[in-house]
Design a protein that fits this description.
The protein is an alpha/beta fold. The protein has helices at about 10-25, 35-45, 65-70, 90-100, 110-120, 130-145, 155-160, 165-175, 180-190, 190-205, 210-220; strands at about 5-10, 30-35, 50-55, 80-85, 105. The longest helix has 15 residues, at about 130-145.
Length: about 230
């Protein structure tokens, strides 16, 4: 199947470069280009896009607002948003994950990384680099939830964790650490299929769209604590 991609960036030159790269691949195609968030949402609905490469900072409706609109639309439940950032250490990265993005990618990434990001997002996986999962997300979620105290913003989700089995909690911790299903399977000495089943059940119980949502919930509830370094 061909992965349908919408490009959302206010820089026409950058969109052109992305289009050439994406359209060169046999398994994906650009179905729309947007210069602001509102246009990105409209094109996503009209084209039946699978993945949106969304710049965070755009005039008018920015990438965060657009991602929230996409995430809130039941008709777009299968759409995955990958945020594009100038710097990986960007505080807006966490806000983008909270808004419903599946992950993020630095604009300085290599072409192969961009293409891989599209495929990863289309497959429903979280695109979270080790820098993000082990440092950036922990840092900013800790600040946003009272330095790791889940009694504030994450209280509701913390209560929902009670619905998880012990094994599901173990898997959630590993997901929050940025591990793949295969890596989790090796660590817990179970099959990758078993891990996938636990991940899917955990997402359903917690109302997470994807693995990125699980990472946010794990930190906001205090199930996973940010490292001090």
């Amino acid at each position: 199947m061909t992965i349908k991609v919408v490009l959302a960036d206010d820089q026409a030159l950058l969109r052109s470069a992305f289009r050439i790269l994406v359209d060169s691949e046999p398994d994906m195609e650009v179905v729309g280009e947007a210069s602001d968030g509102a246009e990105a949402v409209r094109l996503t609905r009209e084209t039946g896009a699978d993945v949106v490469l969304m710049d965070i900072r755009m005039p008018g409706t920015d990438g965060l607002a657009a991602t929230r609109l996409i995430s809130a639309d039941p008709a777009l439940a299968d759409v995955r948003v990958v945020m594009l950032t100038t710097f990986e250490v960007d505080e807006y990265v966490v806000e983008s994950l909270r808004a419903g993005a599946s992950g993020f990618l630095g604009k300085g990434a290599e072409p192969e990384e961009l293409l891989a990001a599209i495929r990863v997002a289309a497959a429903g996986e979280a695109l979270l680099s080790p820098v993000a999962t082990k440092g950036l997300i922990a840092k900013f979620l800790a600040q946003g939830a009272g330095s790791g105290d889940s009694a504030a913003d994450g209280g509701y989700e913390a209560a929902r964790l009670e619905a998880l089995t012990v094994r599901e909690r173990e898997v959630l911790v590993q997901v929050a650490g940025g591990l793949s299903n295969d890596q989790i399977a090796e660590r817990l000495q179970v099959s990758p299929l078993t891990v996938k089943t636990h991940v899917n059940r955990t997402m359903a119980k917690l109302g997470a769209r994807d693995r990125a949502g699980l990472v946010v919930i794990a930190y906001e509830t205090g199930l996973v604590r940010p490292r001090s370094e």
